[in-house]
What does this fold into?
Amino acid sequence: MTTPTATAPENVTLSFKGGSGYDASLLVLRAGSVSEMAELLESEGTSLKGLLERASKIQAFNTELNTPAAKAGGSAPKKFENGRVVNKGSAPDGPADDDCQHGRKLVEKGTWAALFCQAREKSDQCEPLWRQKDGSFKAK
It folds into this structure.
């Protein structure tokens, strides 16, 4: 005869991410069941709010300390765009009426420069903006 084994309590995890970036902090709450988690949130809601506010301030301070541009000799801040890491602000602003939603990349070769659309598919790319003699950019 086999002895029935006791089942482990249901495990519930609730995560709060401190931002949208991969480097954002993560606060994790664990409980044995959904009802236990609900009870925890109900009874500790005010404390949890204070904890999240403090964690947010610590995250902002930590990010400020560790931003590459803040370090002496550091590089420009980076962002992830269209599957690539690019420097923030690496391309000058195009015309105010530029409606490219994919972002643009500055390419300079000898005597010319242009802002090219960063859409992955060539068929989706917007028209390039070419540098004019006055330094502004516009489509041909």
